[in-house]
Amino acid sequence: MSQDNLVKLECAECKHINYRSRKNKKTLKNRLELKKYCPFCKKHTLHKETK
What DSSP string runs through 1-51? Predict the structure, then answer.
């Protein structure tokens, strides 16, 4: 994976960075928001893209 396409996904509730994902920055201009499982909250929460 190239470093310029990697993004970190942070839990909106507990602020832990749980996932890393790829993003095509040419087609997606807005930040990613996905519902993923957070092992710290022990439930599915919204995860937002961070810098």
Answer: --GGGEEEEEETTT--EEEEEE--TTT--SPPEEEEEETTTTEEEEEEEE-
Q: What is the pLDDT of residues 14-35, one digit of tens each?
A: 999 999 999 988 888 899 999 9
What is the model's pTM?
Answer: 0.82
Cα–Cα distances in angstroms (integers) from residue 50 to residues 9, 13, 27, 31, in the given order: 6, 14, 18, 8
Domains (range + CATH), the chain: 3-50 (2.20.28.120)
- How many other C-beta atoms can be found within 10 angstroms of the C-beta atom of residue 10? 19
